[in-house]
Amino acid sequence: MKKLKEEGIIKLLFFVYEKYYKNTKFVWQIRWYLVLQAISKLYPLLISYLLGRVIDSSIYSINNNGEFRDVIPLIIIFGMVALVWTLVNNVFQYVDSMIDLWISYLDDDVYLKKYIQVEPKAYEDPDFVNEKGILNWNSHTVINNFFQSLEVVSTFPVVVISFLAIYAQMPLLSLLAVIATIPSAIIIAKFGRKVWGIWSDRGEEKIKYSSYRSTLWESNFEKLQEVYVFKYGKYLLDMAKKINERFIEKFRKNYISRYSWSTVANFVSNIVNIFVLIFSIQMVFEGNMTIGMLTFIIAAYQRFNGDVSEILYKISSVLGNKKFFVTFYNVLNWENSIVSGEKKLDNIKTGLSIEFKNVWFRYPKTKKWILKDVSFKVDKDEDIAIVGKNGAGKSTMIKLLLRIYDPQKGDIFVDGTNIKELDIDSYYKLIGILSQSFNQLSITVQDNIYIGDVSKNMDGEIKEAAKKADIHDTIMELPEKYSTFLSREVKDGIQLSGGQWQKLAIARAFFRNAKLLILDEPTSGVDSISEEKIFENIRKNAQNRTTVIVSHRFATVRKAGRILVIDDGRIAEDGDHTTLLKQNGLYAQMYNKQVG
Greater confidence, 259 or 387? Predict the structure, then answer.
């Protein structure tokens, strides 16, 4: 994964803001959040000032034979501020609650919108997979620390106002207020950031921890059956606990140092605070300060100390977790290396012709050539099978045909056009693929087929595709038929067997009605009778379609119109089943070994 230049924390925070709020309909929430947060911090200071004025006014009236009504205007102002705050506070709680409510929605919009655009080969890049895994585990850390930075912004004006209020009444106290925060500031700066750094540095350890324990949280019957029979559940649990213990031990050592020094720092701060209290009360006895203003100054002093500590704590958290912001920035700025061409394949009525011309390919960061000078042609509407030993290069050919990768040498042509010149989206619309690891989605049966081509209207074609895949009769026996959810966690939901899932995936490929149908081990999980039905349907619907089958099962392969045999990255043999048997080469050896 190409590392981007590491940005400063301010730019990283603004990047998070851009992704979550700047260009969404929720931008008003974040702006009001900032304003209302500042008001909520300022309210205790304002109410303390008004209370001090009420106390002073009351004492003055009592000492000068005044009446209660003299104090009523201040009491009314005090009451109005309290009532207005009740409204403002509820608005703030509403905005805050709405932000919490929409965070998961925005998470999906930020992360999943990006992930569906990332080219598949990124998931064969260990650096990208590692960073994405760390980010998936710590996405909450990114957004939580973003909000902590917002709270710093909203609290800072209140700190300034508190300081100025103290300074206006007693400059010396403002200096003491600053001095009182210094010990705590040092502790937070030294140990607070270190704590967050441990979380950040152990990001990969969390993934390892989850890798051992995640299976035990599963509700998948087959997985838990193996755990129960093999009795390795305790081993997984013990390994997870060992990783977690190492994690906890790092925190324990940090906490010992942190709270030892924190005790000293708090002791110093409290001495200063006691001195401030004594000094302030002395000012009252000397007549240099009123009791009401004493109440306000003490409140402002405490507000200042509390807010400064909170700001420092949050800054240490944000800076300590900078690594996650960098990861967020890197993953969200991932750029695909495959650049689409501009030529569109429109109005295609027949299958697609394919040509590999002197193609050489090796995977990134490796020296071994997987494909070596491969050349062959596939005519429109041809039915072709690709066979070979494991690691021969069969799946790699499919990746190149899908333009997941580009060859280092040689060219691939589709309908006579270099694949690099084709508009990828228009090309993909003509392709149907069933890979070995097809998606088993816990959604309805109907949607599991419909996602084969979401540009179509839902109509009778879904059932037709299911019939071609020999799964329609099974579906009709389900509790809700095509509306049945394929998950035991949903009421009336069910789970299909492996072979049934494979048939459903084949129905998905049929529904696409592609001009190039690629089947990679399409019937490895179905019985021989179903396999015969499925391929009979493939042959019946092969008109105006090019079919490429990759399979180890010769009952499937032998019926293909043409067979390519791959060996050590090269085309070793090319012909139909009968021809290749007569040649008595690699195909004949593999066939005889499997069939006997």
Answer: 387
